[in-house]
Every structure is written in structure tokens, then in C-alpha cells.
Predict the 3D structure of the following.
Amino acid sequence: MRRPHRFSARLAPIAAFVAVAFLLTSCEVGTSCTTPNSPLPIADQTPNTPTQAEPALGQTYVDQLHDTCVTRMTDHDAAGIPNFIRNDYSRRQAFNADDTRLVAYVSGGSWRQIDVATGADLGRLPGLVGDAEPQWHPTDPDLLYYIPNFGGLTVHQLNVVTGQSITVGDFTGRLPWPSAARLWSGSEGSPSADGRWWGFMAQTSGGSPLGLVVWDRATDTLTTFDGDNASLGEANYTSMSPTGDYIVAGYNGGGGVWAYTRDFSDSVQIAAQGEHSDLALLENGNDAYVALDFEVTGGPVQYTDIAEAMAAGAASPVTLFDTYLGNGTFTSIHFSGKAFGHTGWVLASTYNHGSNNTQEWYTRRLLAIELKPGGRVLGMAHTHGDVNQYFDETHASVNRDFTKVVFNSDWGTGDGVDIYLIDDLNWIVDPDR
């Protein structure tokens, strides 16, 4: 579901980060945090959130239940920034191509880059404002794509080292709708894993829907779907699937979630409601839609093989686990399917809990979920945060090979949100465990 619009150009620029650099405590496999014989626990067989003091900036502690290293990467108060420095969204890749930098969103509408190895602030990202939808280049760690705030008719490429931008896509006068003023994904989508295929909503300057667009960055060609899908209502977001074979759109007003082939020659409904979700790769290389379905008995976390659904003309979701466990229990989940280099797994970050304050096994937790029937659900760490507003939400993001994770937490203080890093997770997906 679309996130709040977060920035107005009338806002004054916020104060810059206080320059902070520190050396992260070593978290190499076999040292103080993990050993080859210390697999992550099966999540539903382990107890609830343990007590953990809020770490100081740069401090690494061992999550005792999971034997994982967690490092506090930012301190918004020390930097003189109100409210938060945070990972923007779970459905966007936070880490660059070689995991040396991560992109961070700062209250007020600006974007920063942080050195993953040292925690140093590497400066504001010029040109990025509000809903700029930053997307790292899939292979060049110095390059980042972005669009105008709330979308526009251009896509830009920023060299984060030099600060220089170029326009790599200009759609002015190339769309079939004279009133088209902006293309964007609703700030929820991503391009294909190789960065070639992009899926957009086309809208007027006032946000009225016009249609869907697929952009082939390699050939700079556009494929359009006129009129969006009038029978479904207004699209809430779009995203390209990891393979680039499909553009996925979630619709407001009960229209559900639909996958279209990238030439729009075929389509299939893959979910009845547009809940929190992401797109990931299955072990067989197919695209999967992963979501929690609040409308179904049990409140299940499920995945759907999009290629199979397209061939059959209907979705057949696979249930992985339920979240309605009685006594008013439930949770909210964000998913990150961006581990394209380690297929068959997705990261989930949970927040909220049942109306009777029951702390179930999934509460305030990071989970590694195996995308196959009967797949394992492994606990990774507890997040220790409370959620009182949108920007408090965890929104964890995984890197391409599932060895690093960033997440947000206010540590239960109600005093704003910062970024935390889990490092050296190359051992969590050993198939023998």
C-alpha cells in the first residue's frame, strides 16, 4: 500500500549530518558472533523478545537468541536531526552493488549515503528529494538511479562519488497521453534485478491515472497500456518483477494485485488485496509474489509463482505460516525480496501485535523465510522497536546475497528511529540446516 507523501519543495533544507566515523566490531563467521555450528533458530520454536539495552552509536552487540551481530549505524539525535535517519523501504535495495554503501532517508526529505564498513556519513545525495525512488545500479557500486519527487518524465543516473548526474531516460512527448506529467512506481517499486526493465504508473500532474508503462533502459523503448485498467480502479503502485518478465500493479478500492507480461499481452490476478508484499526469485528462477493475506482464514504469509499463475490463468498461493494464532493475535509484516543472488529466500520484518498485547514468536522480529512448500522460517534478530506512526516501521532490507540486513528501530524509546546493521549472514541459508 502506498506510503505517505513525505516531502514538500517548500520545506527548508535540513541540517546536515554530524560527520561520524567509527570502526565496526568484527562480525566474521567463527569469531565472537557466529560459528559454522551456530545456525539460526527455527523461529516458531524460540521464545519472545529478550531484554537488550539500546546500543550506542557504533556499538555491536550479539543478539543472544540468534547469535547474530547487530551494529547501530546512526544516531539522529547526535547528528542534530529530528525524528529519524532510516532505511527508506523494504522493497528497495538499500545496499549498493558491492555492499560498501547504503542509502538512507532523513526526516525532512533528503537522502544520504553511509559507509557500511565504518558507519561514516558519506554526504547528501545531490538531486534526490522526497519520493525520488533511488535504485542502485546492479553492478556498478558508484551509480544510483533516481526520479523527480513524486515522479516526472525523466530518470537520472547519479555518480555518488563525483556527485555528477546525467539523464538516462527522457519520456517527454513520447507517451500516448497528452496530459501525462509523471511516471513513478508510487515509491514502492523496483526495476528488474539486472536494472534493464522498469515498470511505472503514468499520471497527470494532479495524480489522475492514465496507464501503465514499461521502459527498457537498454534500448530506451517504451511499451504502454492505455487507460490503466478501468475495471479495477486506480493503481496504487507498480513494480517490475526480478526477471523483468512481468510488471505488477496493485490497485486501490479492492482491485487487487495483477501481473502483466511486459508487453501487456496477458495478465492474471495474483492477490485479492494489495497488502504489504514484495517480489522475489524462487529457486527455479521464477518470479514470486510474497505477501501476508489479512482477508484469508489464518492470516497466512503466502507466495505465488507468477509464471505458474499466468499459465493457469489463476493464482495458487502457497501458505508458509499463519499469523492469526488465536486470542486476537496478528502482526504486520514488510517483505524484502532483493536477495537476487540467493534465490528461494525472502526477508520479513514484523511489527504490531494482537489486541490483547500477546507477544507471539514473530513479534518485533526479523525472519528469513524459505520460499517452498513447508519452507523453513528462521529467526534472525529482534528489532526492539515500537511503532506509533508510519516512519517508526521496521522496513528491513536485505542485500543481494543475503549476507547483510539493515533495519530501523526506535528501540522502544519513542524518541525517533535509527538504522541498524546485521552483518556476515552467509551461513544462514545452508540447505543442510
